[in-house]
């Protein structure tokens, strides 16, 4: 994991922090559609995917690059949790 994720920090916590750093001062609810509300743009989408891959050492496949996986804080956290759980299942 990237050093930006604190020990014991959940994916939901770390996604909140990452998104919060990029949207300014207004708080973002976990289920807000950050793209539909215009709070971020397509460049941020690329940054978000790269951050997820780098921070959690997971690969985001082309079939996973859909707005449903990245349009809200909770969606991104769920995606990360699903991918890391799948990785754990493969190694056990």
Structural notes for this entry:
The protein has 92 residues and is mainly α. The chain is built from 4 helices and no strands. The protein has helices at residues 11-23, 42-56, 67-70, 73-91. Helix 1 runs antiparallel to helix 4. The chain is globular and about 40 Å long. The model has no long low-confidence stretch (mean pLDDT 90).
Overview in brief:
The protein has 92 residues and is mostly helical. It has four helices and no strands.
Q: What is the secondary structure topology, with strand pairs?
A:
Elements lengths: L10 H13 L18 H15 L10 H4 L2 H19 L1
Helix pairs in contact: 1-4
Estimated share of beta-strand residues: under 5%
What characterizes the major β-sheet? none
Name the quaternary structure.
single chain
Q: What is the number of strand segments?
A: 0
């Amino acid at each position: 994991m990237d050093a930006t994720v604190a020990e014991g920090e959940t994916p939901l916590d770390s996604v909140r922090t990452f998104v919060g750093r990029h949207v300014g001062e207004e708080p973002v609810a976990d289920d807000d559609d950050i793209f539909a509300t215009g709070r971020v743009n397509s460049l941020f989408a690329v940054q978000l995917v790269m951050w997820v891959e780098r921070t959690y050492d997971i690969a985001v496949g082309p079939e996973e690059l859909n707005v449903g996986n990245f349009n809200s804080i909770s969606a991104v956290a769920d995606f990360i949790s699903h991918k890391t759980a799948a990785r754990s299942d493969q190694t056990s």
